[in-house]
Amino acid sequence: MIKKKILDSQNWYSKYYKAHYERKNRFRDDLLNPETLYQFLALKKCFVNSLYKISLNKKKSRIIDIGCGSASQLISLISLGFNQENLFGIDINKVDINFAKKNYPLLNLFWQDATNLDFKNDYFDLTYESTMFVQITNNEISRKIANEMIRITKKGGYLILFDWRYGKFNNANFLACNKRRIKELFKVDKSTILISIEKGMLIPPIGRFLSRNMGSMYFVFSRLFPFCIGQVAYILKKE
Q1: Has this prediction a pTM greater than 0.90?
Q2: Hey, what CATH topology would domain 2-238 get?
């Protein structure tokens, strides 16, 4: 039974990798693309606002990005004054990890499976992910990753989930990472406490349209129509 579960997980990961990474490795978003500019700015705003909500020592806090990709979020932390010797990232996509290692050799980057992390218990002051759970439709794998994220985070430390609260219409490869799912995966009120939800990017069709055609109205629209905000940050504290 256990061997079957392992095989099922491996098969699912193979399909996941093919669905989500093959195209990504060929086509990366260009920040000079007017359709992505304000989406990018909204993400950065959400990232910074989330950090304001928690207490971290910039020189000593150990931080890990689960599913770090090419390490763009970790580089943002360096620009905010965090010590890069204490910044870690893991990803299952070896192409992204190799790219990041080549460009940012001082970061601690590893090719790892997030369901079985090679780190000690209670090691990190902040553990976070970005746009990962919306892409993981397998409930067992989602639970394993969430459990590992909780395990490696210090008691009194923080977890931040930068993810999409809506799935994609008629696309089974994306599963909404809404508040209910977060509470279940991260054992809110048992192992963690939900302390804040920060708003981020608009849903892509609207966000890309405004970014290209009405950039000055992007954040006004976000304020007037909060239900159109698709990406948010769930900020948790480990008890």
Answers
A1: no
A2: Rossmann fold (3.40.50)
